[in-house]
Amino acid sequence: MPIIVELDVMLARRKMRSKELAERIGITEQNVSLLKSGKVKGVRFETLEKICEALDCQPGDILVFKAEENSGG
User: Fold this and answer.
1) In this structure, are strands 63-65 and 3-5 parallel, antiparallel, or unpaired?
2) HTH cro/C1-type domain: from which residue to which, for each copy (predicted)?
3) Has domain 3-65 been given CATH number 1.10.260.40?
4) Per-residue pLDDT tens digits for 2-48
């Protein structure tokens, strides 16, 4: 998937645990874990806004686009 979620990096920079983030933004720890692992198909803007507010960051600090390399021939 070309969108990489770097939520774990931002949590480390802010010295915050997933549990604390979950409590601050009103979602479960399991959902934070799914976001961190990139196993989600999407994220609501409302949730993204709360994450950015809690971590004092921009969406681009946690969502990174990486083009897929073609293995073609």
Assistant:
1) antiparallel
2) 13-62
3) yes
4) 899 999 999 999 999 999 999 999 999 999 999 999 899 999 999 99
C-alpha to C-alpha distance for 30 and 3, rounded to whole angstroms = 20
Q: How far is CA 69 from CA 11, 21, 37, 57, 73, in A?
A: 28, 33, 21, 29, 12
Domain chopping of the chain, boundaries: 3-65
Q: 26's torsion region: left (phi>0), alpha (psi -120 to 50) or beta?
A: left
pLDDT value of residue 5 = 93
Residue 73 has pLDDT above 60, yes or no: no
For residue 69 the two structure tokens come to 């390399």
| Residue 33 tokens, joined | 């874990």
